[in-house]
Amino acid sequence: MNTATAPTIDEGFLVSTHPGTGAEVGRHAVADERAVNTAVAEARELQKWWANLGFAGRRRLLLACRAEMARRVRELVAVIRAETGKSVSDAFTEIATSFEHLKWAPKHARRVLGPRRVPTPLDLMDHASYLEYRPYGVVAVIGPWNYPLHTPMGSIIYALAAGNTVVFKPSEYTPSVGQWIADVIADVVGRPIVTVVHGLGDVGGMLCSADVDKIAFTGSVATAKKVAKAAAERLTPVLIEGGGKDAAIVDADANLDTAADYVVWAAFTNAGQSCTGIERAYVVESVAEEFIKRVVAGAAAIRVGDGDDAHIGPITMPRQVDVIARHIQAAVDGGAEVALGGPEAVRPPYVDPTILVDVPEDNPAVTEETFGPVLVINRVRDADEALRRTNALGYGLGGAVFARRSAVRLARGMLSGMTSINSGFAFAAVPSLPFGGVGDSGYGRAHGADGLREFAFAKAIAKRRLPQVIPLMSMKRKDVHNRIIEKIVTLGVRKR
After folding, report:
1. How would you write 167-224 as a 3-class SS string?
2. Single pTM value for the model
C-alpha cells in the first residue's frame, strides 16, 4: 500500500512527509503574497551590504558556510533522506557534488566577474576599455525535489558569489532541506542573505511576479513555460532547466563492462529521478545482446527500500508512480520485450528497476520523460542511426557516449547541452563545466564561469585617457582625419 501523500496545508503550515512511510518530517509557515513581497524587499536592502563586501569578503563567508555544512553533514544526510526517501549513498552523492560547487564559485568569482581591461581599437587609441560583471540584485530560485540540495545550490551559491541576495522557493516536497540551507547560511553570515518562502505552486507564481531581478527555475517543461510567461510581463531574465530524456549511445567498439556499469548507475540512481538520468540506450546490434545481459544483471542486483542498506528508495512524488506505470504498460502494449521488471515492478511507493527492449520510437516510454527506474534499450544498425534517434526528440539536456574511435564525434553531434564519454553524468559534478540544456530542456547555464555570469550583467566602460588623437566622435573632424580613418580601416587589406 502507498502510505506516501502529497504535501498538504494544515492551518497555514506546509506539512512535508517521508515518501515511503508517510511520517511527518516538518511544518513550515506558508507564505502569502505579502510575505513574498516583504521577503523580496528585505533581500533588496540586504543586497547592498552583501555586494559591498566585495569578492574577498563574500568568498570568506561562503567558504565558512561550506565548512559549517560539512561539520553538520550527518544532519544534512538525515534531512535529505527524510524528505526524499533517498538511499544513504544517493544522499552522499548529492552532497559531494554540491560541496564542489560550494567551493568553486566563491573561489573563482573574482577571476570570472572582476574588472579587467580589454583591447581598444586603433581609431580609439585615446581611450581605455574595461569590462566587469555587476550583480543583478535579488535572484529568485525555484528548486526541485529530486536533488533538493545540489540543484538549487547550483544557482544559490553562484548568485551569492556574484553579489546577489536570494529568495528561495524550495519544492513543497522538500521544504525542510531548503530551510536547512538558509538557516545554516544565516547562522554563519549573521544575516539572511538567503530567504525561504514556503508553499505550493501558487507561491512560486507569486515569486515570479514579484520585484525580483532574475529567476532560476528547475522543473517540468509545462511549469517552465508558465515561469517564462510570468517573467516576460516584467522582462525578468530567466534561467530554465526543464528536464530531459537523456540517451546513451553504445557503439560496437565500446567497453561493455564499463558501459553497462555506468548506464545502470545513470538510469537507476535516485530511483531514476534524475533530470540527466539515462532513460534511453541505443546499442549497435553486434554488441546488443552482451550489453543487455550485463545491464540486466547489474540492475537485478539493486536493492529497493528505505533501509540503510538500500541502493534506491521510493518514488518521491506519488503521482509520478502513475506516469511510470503508464509508460511501462505502453511499452508492453507496443510489443516491447521486458528484460527485467515490467508492470509488476510498480508497487507504490516503490518501483523496481525495469528494462524494456526494442520499444517503438513513437511510444510514450521513448518520447516522454519517465522520471523513474525504467530504461529503454533499443538496437540500432550503427552509431549514426543511434545519433539520429537520440536527436529526434525536443529534449536536449545531457547524454552519454560509450565508444572508442567515434566517441568525440558522437558526443559533439549529440543535440544536448552536456555529454559524457565512457562515464555517467559526470559533467554535473565538475564545477568548472556549465550545466544546462537546449530545446525543451531550457536555456541558460548554471555552474562554471557561465554559471557565475548567469547571475551578473556585463558592464562595459570606455574611458578617455589621452587628448583626442583622431576626433572620431566629434563634429570638429576634418578631411585629414577621415583620410587617417580610411588608412586604419584598410590597413592590411590587399588592393585589387
Report:
1. EEECCCCCHHHHHHHHHHHHHHHCCCCEEECECCHHHHHHHHHCCCCEEEEECCHHHH
2. 0.95
